[in-house]
Structure formats: structure tokens, C-alpha cells
């Protein structure tokens, strides 16, 4: 298992300057929040050491996250405890539903179309907010999105626009071409190829609890980077050969195999038990 894991860790570092704060966010969201949301610094240090992240880089990342109101720090004797701030909890709640979803969101064919009135210059200022809410610009000042079970609330973003929400007379087969899906498809294909050696190594050999938690963090770190940039279209709008489906199944299979030994490591590290074991077991629809 070690060579395959080391290869995956090297891949993480070869992307350029490592954003340690983002890796910390992955650890919190995947492993700490389900156990109450608080973790000793020593636990983070042990995971990060196996990921070849220096203690100073971790401390800098935690300071940045605290300054940005993502985490709060408490002292417990000589040890430091870190927990999510309220802002961090809200962001995690929104992201978690997409990261661990069983598949594309359900959809009844309803679209929301938002049109900016002539001369309204505010749309340009909120283009990023519209895109983050799942909208795509279909023309000058006209935005649309399929209304799925995962669509976030966008009322404030749509203020001042003419908004329609209904099922159209027809939805063309090429409707997905409004979005640039090529890069997302390539990211899913790259992800599947990258984790294949890790999955194969786990099937053939023994894995330690520490290797399991580190592998799980790397898996979700890569996965969430793709999923949270994916427009999240329903299956009816996606190409029949969409690589996201097989990538999700691959992620699910590996995550399921890693769950027990990685949770063992968290138990041995002294973290509180899972708040909702059934909810945790249902990740990826397992």
C-alpha cells in the first residue's frame, strides 16, 4: 500500500504550491465534523506529517483559517483544540450534500430563467454569484439553471431581475452545451486514472489505520475540488457517456473500503465517536 500512497502524495505536491489551508478544510469536513467538529492540534499534525506537510505550514494555515473565521482555537492545558466557526459550519453544510451525493440531482424538468432589465448594470457585478448558484449565461443579461434538488437558494442574487420558473415546451438534447463541460469531464477522467493504483493496492495488500485516514483525506480532497466546480446538472441533461458517473462509483467503492480502518485511526487518536453513524454510513449513497 505504501508505494501507491506515496505516489498519490507526490501527485499532491507536484501541482504547484500546496494550499495547506484547503487540505485542512478537507480534513475537517470529511473526518472531524462527523465527530463533533473539534480536533486537537496533535491529531492534525500526525495526518499532515504523513502527507509531508511541515508543522510550520500547518500552523500558518490554521492562523489564516482563524483570521478568515473558518475555525476557532481553544487551549486545553498545553494542547490546542481547533473547531469550526459558525461560518465554517454553514459552508460545510452546503458542500457536503454535493460531495457525498449518490449521483446527479433529481430533476422534474423545471428551469429558472433570469433576465436583467435593459440598462441594469448590476448583473455584471453579481455574475460570479449567479455562476456559484448554478446559473449559466445564455445570452447578454439572460441566465438560466435547471431547478434540481441540490439547487441553492438564490433569491438575493436574483433581486432586480425578471425571473421565470417553469417547465419549457421542449428541452433540446444539446441543452448541456450552455455549460463548458469538457474541462469537468477531463477532470473526472484524470481523477479515475489517478486513484486506480491506490484502489488496486488496497485490494491486494494490508493497509494500516494511518494509511487509511491519509488515503481517505487525499481521495476526498481530489474529489471535492472537482465536484464543487461541476455545475451539478441532472442526468437528463448530461451526455450518455458522462465520466462523472464512473468516477463517482470509483470514489464510492474506495471510500467504503477505507471507512472502517480510517475510523479506527480516529478512534485511537481519541476523537469523540460519530454523532450519526447511520448518516456517515450513507455517504455516496452506500
Automatic annotation (TrEMBL):
Residues 179-267 form the Transcriptional repressor PaaX-like C-terminal domain. Residues 21-84 form the Transcriptional repressor PaaX-like N-terminal domain. PANTHER family: PHENYLACETIC ACID REGULATOR-RELATED TRANSCRIPTIONAL REPRESSOR (PTHR30319), TRANSCRIPTIONAL REPRESSOR PAAX (PTHR30319:SF1). The lineage of its organism: Bacteria, Pseudomonadati, Pseudomonadota, Alphaproteobacteria, Hyphomicrobiales. This is Transcriptional regulator, PaaX family. GO terms for biological process: DNA-templated transcription.
Amino acid at each position: 500500500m505504501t508505494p501507491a500512497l506515496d505516489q498519490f502524495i507526490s501527485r499532491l505536491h507536484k501541482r504547484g504550491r500546496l494550499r495547506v489551508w484547503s487540505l485542512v478544510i478537507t480534513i475537517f469536513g470529511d473526518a472531524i465534523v462527523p465527530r463533533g467538529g473539534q480536533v486537537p492540534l496533535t491529531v492534525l499534525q500526525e495526518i499532515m506529517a504523513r502527507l509531508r506537510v511541515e508543522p510550520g505550514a500547518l500552523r500558518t494555515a490554521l492562523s489564516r483559517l482563524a483570521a478568515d473565521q473558518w475555525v476557532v482555537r481553544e487551549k486545553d492545558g498545553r494542547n490546542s483544540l481547533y473547531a469550526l466557526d459558525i461560518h465554517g459550519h454553514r459552508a460545510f453544510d452546503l458542500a457536503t450534500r454535493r460531495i457525498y451525493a449518490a449521483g446527479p440531482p433529481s430533476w422534474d424538468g423545471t428551469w429558472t430563467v433570469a433576465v436583467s432589465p435593459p440598462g441594469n448594470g448590476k448583473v455584471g457585478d453579481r455574475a460570479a454569484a449567479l455562476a456559484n448558484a448554478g446559473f449559466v449565461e445564455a445570452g447578454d443579461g439572460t441566465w438560466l439553471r435547471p431547478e434540481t434538488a441540490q439547487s441553492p437558494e438564490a433569491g438575493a442574487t436574483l433581486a432586480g431581475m425578471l425571473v421565470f420558473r417553469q417547465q419549457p415546451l421542449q428541452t433540446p438534447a444539446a441543452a448541456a452545451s450552455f455549460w463548458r463541460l469538457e474541462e469537468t469531464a477531463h477532470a473526472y477522467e484524470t481523477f479515475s486514472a489517478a486513484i486506480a493504483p491506490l484502489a488496486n493496492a488496497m485490494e491486494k495488500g494490508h493497509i494500516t489505520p494511518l494509511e487509511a485516514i491519509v488515503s481517505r483525506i487525499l481521495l476526498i480532497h481530489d474529489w471535492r475540488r472537482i465536484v464543487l466546480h461541476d455545475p451539478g446538472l441532472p442526468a437528463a441533461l448530461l451526455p450518455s457517456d458522462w465520466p462523472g458517473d464512473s468516477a463517482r462509483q470509483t470514489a464510492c467503492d474506495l471510500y467504503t473500503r477505507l471507512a472502517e480502518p480510517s475510523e479506527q485511526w480516529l478512534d485511537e487518536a481519541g476523537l469523540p465517536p460519530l454523532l450519526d453513524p447511520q448518516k456517515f454510513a450513507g455517504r455516496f449513497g452506500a
